[in-house]
Every structure is written in C-alpha cells, then in structure tokens.
Design a protein that fits this description.
4-stranded antiparallel beta sheet, alpha+beta, Alpha-Beta Plaits
C-alpha cells in the first residue's frame, strides 16, 4: 500500500472509558480503515498509536485531522495525525 494513503495517529492523555471507541467510530464513519493499533496504559495515562488507510476516506486529510483533534479536546486527550511519509522523515536518525 502506498504510504501517501496511510496516516499515523497518536493519542495521549489521562485514561478514560471509551477513548478507542470514539476514535475508531469516527474513523469508521468516514471510511478510514485501521490497519494496525497499539495501546497501553502507563500509571493512569493512556497512549495509542494507529496506522490508518485513508485511501477510501470521504473527508480530506485536513478534515480528518481536525475532526480527531476536536474529539480529543472533547474527551481530554491529545490526538495528532500525520501522513506516514512525514512521520518517517521526522523520525529518521
């Protein structure tokens, strides 16, 4: 799969019920497919990384980014989205 259709999503914040559900429901509702997900809770803090295929999404990348950021504000976590190629360039050694 081309990386231009893949988005890296990170979620960090105080643990609460329903974080994964809210994020996944939003993505599913906009036809974005979760390819991989990893989450953990460290001393009451929730962290999650996702790789999402946005090739069939019915919203632009910018709209998805804003929609997830708004959900994050609503539930008290920080949600960030980056295109995979940008994420890789930023984390190259």
């Amino acid at each position: 799969m081309e990386s231009k259709n893949r988005t890296i999503i990170s979620v960090v914040g105080k643990d609460a019920v329903g974080i994964i559900a809210r994020v996944c429901t939003y993505l599913s509702g906009h036809k974005a497919n979760v390819l991989d997900i990893s989450q953990t809770i460290l001393d009451g803090f929730f962290t999650m990384m996702m790789i999402v295929d946005t090739s069939s999404a019915d919203e632009s990348f910018g709209d998805i980014q804003k929609g997830l950021a708004d959900i994050g504000k609503d539930i008290g976590v920080d949600i960030r989205c980056q295109k995979e190629e940008i994420f890789e360039m930023m984390h190259r050694i």
